[in-house]
Amino acid sequence: LSFIQPPQVAWASGALADGLLLRKSTRIEDLPDVFADEHARQQLVGEQVVYDVEMLDTSPAEGELYTGVTHLYPGRVGCEYFMTRGHFHARREQGEVYFGLRGTGLLLLQTEQGDARLEKVFAGSVHIIPGFTAHRLINTGEEVLSALAVWPGIAGHDYAALASGFRIRVFEENKTVQAKEVQNG
Ligand code: PAN
Ligand code: ZN
Q1: Surface-to-core class of residue 31, CB atoms within 10 Å of its CB (0-12 exposed, 13-18 middle, 19+ buried)
Q2: Interface pTM, i.e. ipTM
Q3: Is pTM, for the whole model, over 0.90?
């Protein structure tokens, strides 16, 4: 018998290798109305990538799991740190696990009732995202923030439910990280 060579994640960089990868880049122009300062966002429109997601091309069938790495680049729109769009799962009850690989940032979690909290993300951090909980990564550091995620193939993404924004926004003010509660967006 021969031994199967599995896909690989390089822990230090988060780079995935083999396993029929899918890649998706999200740029500033793909994120209208996501940041508080829409005018500042429009000034940055160009080819700037905010984050890349690499995924293993595995089955979406019920019971199967997806594996992906998000690389969220350092940067700000106005004073607000670069972040992912963020979503609930279309199948609300489905959870997910994130593992911090490199860089520093925050994972913003928000329930359907609107209760929001922030977990620190760093190399080795483990984040249990329960069902019914929206999630967004925020890069508060000066390096790339990379996180490995595992989630159910049937979970799906619902971006519309939080189109008007999460309850917390994170800004750099006086060289420090400031999280602010916002009313609606
Ligand atoms: C992640 C996210 C990834 C990109 O794989 O999809 O970080 O964020 P957005 O999907 O919010 O743009 C995940 O949570 N999957 O379920
Ligand atoms: Zn998710």
Answers
A1: buried
A2: 0.99
A3: yes
